[in-house]
Design brief:
single chain, alpha/beta, six-stranded mixed β-sheet, 18 helices, 10 strands, about 40% helix
């Protein structure tokens, strides 16, 4: 396939091979529609009764309509009004007037063209990242030759390829068993002409369904392709788990998807409306990170942390929205815990502990993961999480340490060795290379897919490569290096080559790109009927965002070459 379409570029959208690879690099949310864009797979528009037909193609109009979530009827009305204002549509000549069926046909045509291009030639996938969600999905039931619209829950799994965060597709499931998920993903890739011969890395969140060492999704895929893969289990999810358990211990269990019963949690709902009081500053290390790569909620976390460190809060920050309450998004919960702190004159001891943990562990580790986002950085982030949480009382350390250990997939020797051979220190690189060569000699005799389990951790480690006991832990070579020969590794040792001379692909250690894709699938599920139409909507939306990341002024608009 030809070149990809990164969302940060300003290339022109084109219905060509370039448009078949669409990057999930933007977190833009589209506007609400007036009405759902219901489009059944078997829909046949009513023939026009007009004596003339509008033959002009409206690809750009269809693309913008999908991108901004405007209904067919509204798109037709707006486009026709513009033609009227320009004097191209008049009472004497209304042949250019657009109706909703024209917009619908153009959307369908453009979506189909994008989808057809994917199947023309094989695609090689090196990194497979996936995530799922149960969506409210639009469906059409036919009863007595009449169609009735309804909404039902349906499981959708989104798939992207790395490096590049390129949208591959999504699959619908009736059950959530690991075997069914793995089968659905593999079947989709084969049907879409994707080759798994060079697949080296697989990424997802840390749920047991995905990471179970016996029957998890990753394990099932490894058994299907008959070789091990490099595991890239999301570190942002790992970073949230200690905070989640700490919150439950200090404030009590949750009572619903958006509700708390504890003294702290019960005040979070409207905390942004509380007046700011004189509060005690708490020292923390603020990351020097580019705000442009942060979402609105992430920017709020950094700003509220800075305010607590300084002991003052601006008026603008006090009235900003910290983000919605959701147990699946601990970032916004952390925002609200910090916002509540600056509005309470005498915070409880439990509140102080939570605020301290957010500022000294959760927040800095989050931003380190965002800034240093590749697989080779993963073990260092696990080490940072351990080191930054040691200030807690012993009784709370005993709560979070088992949580970290159960989910420390990046502390596995395969990931540790990958990080060691790109270390800045020559003796650490050499140590990592020698261990890989030795592990290869041992594993080649077994000829089996290893069992992947998070190892026992050394919580007193002074360096990231010491967080496991190498003498008691089974060591396996990193699957990402399976195409690198022993001779090449010995050459690296003898010449003491620097870390920058390794040509690793840039695979991420978190799954935020997949989560953005999941968000798009959820949006499409409420508007379109059928997996094919949802997929087409997602592709056109990504194509439009790739060509024009934002549209705030005339200079932002890019006239496409269609």
């Amino acid at each position: 396939m030809s070149s990809n379409i990164p969302l940060v570029s300003h290339s022109q959208p084109s219905c060509s091979k370039d448009a078949t690879k669409l990057s999930i690099g933007s977190d833009e949310s589209s506007m609400e529609e007036e009405e759902p864009d219901v489009f059944d797979d078997n829909y046949i528009p009513t023939p026009s009764k007009q004596p003339w037909q509008m033959r002009i193609q409206l690809k750009n109009t269809a693309l913008a309509s999908d991108r901004f979530g405007v209904s067919d009827r509204a798109t037709a009305a707006i486009a026709s009004s513009v033609l009227q204002d320009l004097g191209l549509a008049t009472i004497e000549d209304d042949s250019l007037i657009i109706d909703k069926n024209k917009v619908r046909r153009e959307k369908n045509s453009f979506r189909s063209n994008l989808q057809d291009m994917i199947k023309k030639e094989p695609n090689v996938i090196q990194g497979l990242y996936f995530d799922g969600r149960r969506d409210n999905t639009l469906k059409i039931d036919e009863v007595n030759q009449k169609c009735f619209r309804r909404t039902a829950k349906e499981e959708h799994y989104s798939i992207i390829q790395e490096p590049g965060s390129i949208y591959v597709g999504h699959v619908s499931l009736t059950t959530r068993t690991s075997k069914d998920i793995a089968s659905a993903i593999l079947d989709y890739l084969k049907e879409s002409n994707f080759s798994l011969d060079e697949l080296d890395v697989i990424g997802c969140d840390g749920t047991v369904t995905n990471t179970g060492w016996k029957t998890g999704v990753i394990r099932t895929i490894e058994e299907d392709i008959k070789r091990p893969l490099q595991w890239g289990v999301c570190l942002l999810h790992l970073n949230e788990l200690p905070f989640r358990h700490l919150f439950q211990i200090l404030d009590g269990e949750t009572t619903g998807p958006k509700s708390f019963i504890g003294p702290i949690g019960s005040q979070l709902k409207n905390c942004e409306k509380l007046p700011v009081v004189k509060f005690q500053s708490i020292y923390c290390e603020l990351p020097d990170i580019d705000r442009k790569i942060l979402s609105k909620d992430q920017q709020y976390l950094r700003d509220i942390s800075s305010a607590i460190k300084s002991g003052t809060c601006t008026v603008d920050l006090a009235i900003r929205e910290p983000g919605p309450i959701s147990h699946s998004r601990l970032l916004t919960t952390a925002n609200r815990v910090l916002r509540l702190y600056i509005s309470v004159e005498s915070p409880s001891e439990e509140h102080h502990i939570l605020v301290g943990f957010i500022l000294k562990s959760y927040m800095p580790v989050w931003f380190k993961i965002k800034e240093s986002k590749y697989l080779t950085d993963g073990p260092k982030h696990v080490f940072d999480l351990i080191k930054s949480s040691r200030f807690l009382p012993e009784n709370l350390i005993k709560v979070i340490d088992p949580v970290i250990e159960r989910n420390a997939f990046f502390a596995h020797p395969e990931n540790l060795l990958l990080s060691m051979i790109v270390d800045e220190r020559a003796h650490i690189r050499e140590l990592g290379l020698r261990r890989i060569i030795k592990a290869r000699a041992v594993s080649s005799k077994k000829n089996l897919i290893r069992t992947f389990k998070p190892p026992k951790l050394n919580f007193q480690a002074k360096e990231y490569y010491e967080i496991i006991d190498w003498t008691t832990t089974a060591i396996y070579p990193p699957p990402l290096l399976q195409r690198v020969s022993d001779e090449e590794m010995w050459a690296k040792i003898s010449t003491a080559n620097t870390a920058t001379e390794w040509n690793f692909h840039k695979f991420p250690c978190h799954t935020q790109a997949v989560e953005r894709c999941v968000k798009l699938v959820t949006e499409a599920s409420s508007k379109l009927v059928g997996e094919k139409n949802r997929d087409g909507f997602i592709r056109t939306t990504l194509l439009s965002r790739a060509s024009m990341p934002s549209f705030s002024s005339k200079r932002d608009f890019k006239v496409p070459n269609m």
